[in-house]
Amino acid sequence: MATPDPADKAAPDEIDLGHFFNLIYKVFHSMFIGILTFYQYVKRNFVWFVGLTVIGAIAGFTINQLVDEKHKLDVLVRPSKDDINFSFDTRTYLYDVLTEIQSDIKGKDSLFFGNLGFKAEDLPGLEIEITPLISEGRGLLDTENDIISALMEFQNSEAVNEMLESELRNEAMIDQRITFYFKDPVAGEKFAKKTLEYINSNPYYDNLVEVQRQNNKMSLMSNDSLINQIDLLLQAFTDKLNKTNSGSEGQIVMENLTGMNAAALLELKTELLADSDIRRMELEMNDRPVNILNFGKPHKIDKPLFKKNIVFFPLLLLGLFLAGSFIRFLNRKSKELL
Description:
Distance between the termini: 62 Å
Largest sheet: 5 strands, antiparallel
Structural class: alpha+beta
Protein name: Polysaccharide chain length determinant N-terminal domain-containing protein
Transmembrane segments: 20-39, 46-67, 310-330
Number of helices: 10
Oligomer: single chain
Radius of gyration: 39 Å
Shape: elongated
Keywords: Membrane, Transmembrane, Transmembrane helix
């Protein structure tokens, strides 16, 4: 039987390899032709590209000079709240009153502007918005499944209860950012100050804040009195211990101390100190219905690069030119086919 020639086995491999290199050559050749075609197109229309870019830049610069730029002012605020009983919360009031103000601005309500000492035409381009500084959906309460899993795993756990209470407080009240937009920075800043004064001029919430402050002051006085009494009892307990006598067999005799629970007194003192700390913070932070954390300064709004007229108009003109060239190319090809 004849044996196959090794040259016959190598022939298909050589043919396949040659075909592979031929394909690579065709791909690179097509790319090279495409690059040359694009170069010729750019070279042929170079004057158009430069001219349209210059015209667009001049048009954008001119429009920027004619159109007034807007300014913005950010005010960070914190609505008053009750961290002890959760019975006092002015965030709803803040959102409601700002919704009313936005409606008055949009409708150019002369009565509203007059109450603040302005005229609607004195504040062109005026806008106002409010956003929370912290996302309301984040944290421990992201999903109901997380809460259920935590409660099932740590039933009756004091640590879980404390975490849930802390998270509920964070969710119940978060700081807010009120942003004012306007064209005149001087008039806009004055309007922002008058608006915050207007928001804090509500007699009902102003009275609630004052009642809350008085309650906190009275609670602080009561806590301080109880803490002093606990300190006296603990001091008396310590003095008693120092005066204990040792029996003949080394046993310690403690007289009249059986009714004293020092551990409970220390725990009560810790709770009173924590309660006092919260109330002192509330006294410092809640002195108005809406407390101002930071009143910013007016500054120009920085537009993204592609939203600036000086960039937008050249790109627009070049895009229209390229679109026209592509349409002419399609028309020419369709005529050749027909």
